[in-house]
Amino acid sequence: MAEPLIEVLGLRKAFGRHRVLKGIDLSVEAGASVVLFGPNGAGKTTFLRILATLSRPTSGTVRVAGVDIKNNPEGIRQYLGLVTHAPLLYGDLSAQENLAFYARLYGIENAEKRIQELLDRVGLLHRRRDLVRTFSRGMVQRMAIARALLHNPPILLLDEPDTGLDPQAAEMMTDFLREIGGSQRTVLMTTHHLERGLDLADRVMILQGGRIVFDEPSDSLSYETLRPTYDEYVGKGAAVT
Amino acid sequence: MRRYFQVAWAVLWKDLRIELRTKDIFTSMAVFAVLSLMIFNFAFELRIPDKTVVIPGVLWVAIIFSGVLGLGRAFISEKDRGSMAGLLLAPVDRSAIYLGKMLASLLFILVMEAFLLPLMVIFFNTNFISLPLLLVLFLGTLGFAAVGTVFSGLAVNTRTREVLLPVLLFPVMLPVLMAGIRATIGFMEGDTLVDMMKWINLLLFFDIMYLVVAYMTFDFVVEE
Amino acid sequence: MKLSRRLLQMLNIAALVAMLAAVYAALVMAPDALNVDPAIRPAQRVIYFHVPSAWSSMLAFFVAFVASILYLVTKHIRWDIWARAASELGIAFTVAAIVSGSLWAKPAWNTYWTWDPRLTTYTIVLLLYIAYFMLRGAIDEPGRRARMAAVYGIFAFLSVPLTFMSIRWWNTIHPVIVDAPENAGKFGLGPNMLNAFMIVNIAFIIMFTALLANRIALGWAEERMDALKERLNF
């Protein structure tokens, strides 16, 4: 088996005395699609923020492509795209300007072409001169994904990308994610929505109380089998059906 | 190295673009500066014995007080939009973000000063503007923006935010205020740049020292 | 550094003895200052309290500064406890210096307060460290609080010499005792006064060390109590 792309060993994170992650071990192969379920406060967001180098682990190591993120966070960030609850966009800039700004942050050559291409893919090319503040929630979220994909990162981290979207917009986003996921990109995603998560992932995990309590390939699971398992670990009715 | 300045420039460009569109920061700083001129005018109106006594103080206090409004926005606006993480994801040393933010704040305050100075000339009916004064203003503003941008990053982490920024910032800014006021008095009384060299050196030392300290500590301000 | 209880007690006793020696040195050993107006000669003795307080406050802020740097380098909570303890003591000694100075200023300058730049600077230093504690008070998460406070502690301390320098260049009516030989005839100290002066300064340093050690021990106790509370809540 090839060396895992993401390797997490004994990862712990505490905010003061409040321990959020209590020892996570995980390795993810290149090209995998992993979905992380878990109730609010389970540590999903903290976990992704650590992978994205936004938050420092209290102890433990995280290696991306064999490199410890402590040693070279600047280098690792080039390989990561992150989508969070917040779109990380500026309402007072147009779609085009937002992406142009991020293109400069990532030092992308020929940004103009790449921006057009991405805006086209998320179906917002016709709105490229409009301020992002005029966009609907679904459009903003598609923009956020375009932003995360700008530098063509091999790893995509998605922190509840479907939160706050109406079902139709969430459906569109799922299709889009399936399309861009492909086989080369490694995707780590958190969601409350079991069915959607199961649909997108080839590996399913449940994070509860700062630990990974469940880790199975998704082809052995169906919604009907996952639901009771999830309820058992997390407590009934914690996830959106 | 080129990447570093590219990121700093990107942040500066982004802040300028947004500011040109919304004019939020400039408007609040400029209005506040005019208001403080008005208030000072009433406060001193009946007994201005000597304009050189009043103008330097009014000038620097107006700059520091209205400047802090602009500095507060540097990171608070990012935090409110939730866009801070976007900046921190840039694959470059985080001090580049600081540099961009600092330059943006510096520019905003300089523009506010460019607006304030002619107004003061009219209000006080004295042309006190000179080239050496502009140099001192620039050096003072640079130090102000250098420290203020870091403290804006500190304040954004607190519960009280904007309220705390002036409390943190003003006592540290005292050497700049003293040097600025003294040099301004000197220039108004006809001293040359050479006469005021020690104050200029003090400002230079302040600027360089705090830019270096900011460069070294900024990562700690934004990490989690 | 977790001091053993016995070491702490010895330090406390040493501080007590040192302070008794300081009182003797200031009130008995030191002769009257003959070169000042007879009316303010008793008041002049406040110098044996005022100056060591001021020096202790600077020592305290220096310790806080070094601890702040060490915190950022090591991220060890010990240095946060040190920085906080030293800053608190710095504030206490600064208040002591300002109050004693103003008590001397009344007979000497006929006012409790003047806008003498040095006096003003000390007040600014006080404000700096009050701001330091306001910053601490406004952040709940301990790690973040320690980090932000350490950064501010560094900026604050570095501004002190600059403020000091700028007031030197601004006219001052404050007596300069140590480093201005041309003032020796006016305000300088005679030989026995110098001995007394040395004794009080050493005594204050010992007292400062004892207070710091106690405050740090208290800091660790608070830390343990928080941990205990946390565990009981679970």
Query: According to CATH, what is the class of chain C?
Result: Mainly Alpha
Termini separation of chain C comes to 30 Å
End-to-end distance of chain A: 36 Å
Cross-sheet strand order for the largest sheet of chain A: 6-7-8-3-9-10
The percentage helix of chain A is 25-40%
Any chance you could write out the topology, listing elements then pairs?
The complex is a heterotrimer of chains A (241), B (224) and C (234).
Chain A: E1 6-15, E2 18-28, E3 33-37, H1 44-51, E4 59-64, E5 67-68, H2 73-77, E6 80-83, H3 95-105, H4 111-121, H5 137-149, E7 155-159, H6 167-181, E8 186-190, H7 194-200, E9 203-208, E10 211-217, H8 223-234
Parallel strand pairs in A: 3-8, 3-9, 6-7, 7-8
Antiparallel strand pairs in A: 1-2, 1-4, 4-5, 9-10
Chain B: H1 2-22, H2 24-44, H3 51-81, H4 84-88, H5 95-124, H6 131-155, H7 164-188, H8 197-222
Chain C: H1 5-29, H2 41-44, H3 47-74, H4 77-109, H5 117-137, H6 142-169, H7 184-187, H8 191-233
Description:
The complex is a heterotrimer of chains A (241), B (224) and C (234). In chain A, a hairpin with a 2-residue loop joins strand 1 and strand 2 (18-28). Chain A contains eight helices and ten strands. In chain A, helix 3 crosses helix 4 (111-121). Chain A has 241 residues and is an alpha/beta fold. Chain B is an all-alpha fold. Chain B has one domain (2-222). In chain B, helix 1 packs across helix 5 (95-124), helix 2 runs antiparallel to helix 3 and helix 5 packs across helix 6 (131-155). The mean pLDDT of chain B is 91. Chain C has 234 residues and is mainly alpha-helical. Chain C has one domain (5-232): Four Helix Bundle (Hemerythrin (Met), subunit A) (Up-down Bundle). Helix content of chain C is 79%, strand content 0%. The longest helix of chain C is centred in the C-terminal third of the chain and has 43 residues, at 191-233. The interface between B and C is medium-sized, with 32 and 30 residues.
